[in-house]
Specification:
The complex is a heterodimer of chains A (about 140) and B (about 325).
Chain A (H helix, E strand, L loop, with lengths): L6 E2 L6 E2 L7 H36 L17 H6 L3 H29 L3 H24 L1
Antiparallel strand pairs in A: 1-2
Chain B lengths: L1 H20 L4 H12 L3 H25 L5 H22 L4 H20 L6 H7 L24 H10 L2 H8 L11 H7 L9 H18 L4 H11 L4 H25 L5 H21 L5 H23 L3
Helix pairs in contact in B: 1-2, 1-13, 2-3, 3-10, 3-12, 3-13, 4-10, 4-12, 5-14, 6-12, 7-11, 10-11, 11-12
Classes of the chains: A mainly alpha (about 140), B mainly alpha (about 325).
Amino acid sequence: MTGNETVQAGQGGGRHTAPTVPSRAEGAAALDLTVARLLSRGTMSAVALLAIGVVLLAAAGRSPLDTGFAPLDLARLPSDIVALRPEGFLWLGLIAVIFTPISRVLASLVGFWRAGDRRMVLISVAILSVVATSIVLSIVLK
Amino acid sequence: MIVALLLVAGGIGAGMFGSLLGLGGGILIVPLLTFGFGLSIREAAGVSLVAVIVTSSAAASVYLQRHTANLRLGMSLELFTAIGALTGGLIAFTLSDRVLAGLFALLLLYTALTMFRRRDPSPAPVAASAPVDLATPPASTGAGAGAAAEASTGAHVAATQALSGSVVTAGSSLGPGRLSGLSSADTLAGLSGPGYRVRNLGRGIVGAFFAGIVSAVLGIGGGIIKVPVMHLVMGVPLRIATATSNLMIGVTATASAVIYVLRGGMDPLVVGPIAVGVFLGASAGSRIAPRVHVRYLRLLFVVVMIYTALQMVLRAAGQ
């Protein structure tokens, strides 16, 4: 028996099965599922936060269009959430929405790194760099 | 309070019709917020981008679970859609509302034309354009992620049908040029999938970059450009192209959405009700789609789109 084979003892009397080392296709399929779970959970979390914000907004009787809005202030976010102010949950939900695709790229980067796929690792890093550039340019040009 | 509920209701309507007609939410949300709630087109585009990220992320999770989306191809192209979105996001803040209205009118007319000319789907496009059955969430999550939305299908198939024949010809006339260096056998093989081989990567990159700009400026997913490019120019099967385009929307829209957020162009009080509404509406739309005859709905929608395009033209003319 080689290191790439396994024996299912007690199941069919030591019957030999397929190699345990995943093929590239199996690795890609596993990465697809990991990323799918991440996107699903990220989206659900983001929508839940936004929904809480909407309920608080409606409960407060505020009209979204009548009042101006304060720009994103990360330092103020925790106090807004603790005080159950709609802005806190809405900004947090918005951040979760934006972070969901970014986390998908991060997860892909890790998956490609483990698979030794240097080209896709570089592409993943480049995508993250573009998003980072967006953030930096937005702050600089503000 | 009433306005917040109206925004949720508007989002539900946009999400449901978008899902039934195979449209991304953006092309519906921007006119809704502009004419219905008095937002500027740039403000509406920012809100729309967030809704588009929500629906496309949810749909992409389903596509990936089914292994319909090509992750390697999608990420390779989304690098360039993201660069285009970064460029477009910066451009959007330099354009006046009138210019944006004119550009959006062109987009509406193009979409209306492609939907009007859409042939009755043959069996293959049906598979590609049918809304994802989102009732079943990814098996291992147990969450309600399946109750989400599909951000791009039928309209992109329609655009692909409308362009078929012309795009391939135009593409072949470009000549290989410098871009052929990107199309090494190794690279293309790595991006291909079972039963198909990717070609013309350089032209696909140009199309992806352009799609990113349009997405960021007008607040749409950009599938109406990406799907025809992938299918007609790059040889990706329509079903895979549609799913892969959906996967790419999230990062593309994120690259420009952060610009809207950080430059003060995103109102969270409007984003919340619209995003939640679109999510709910698209979820409902994907579930009732198999029981709805969309032929007359599509024709009605073409009329509404043309009317909206004329309103945009008037806005662009300053009236």
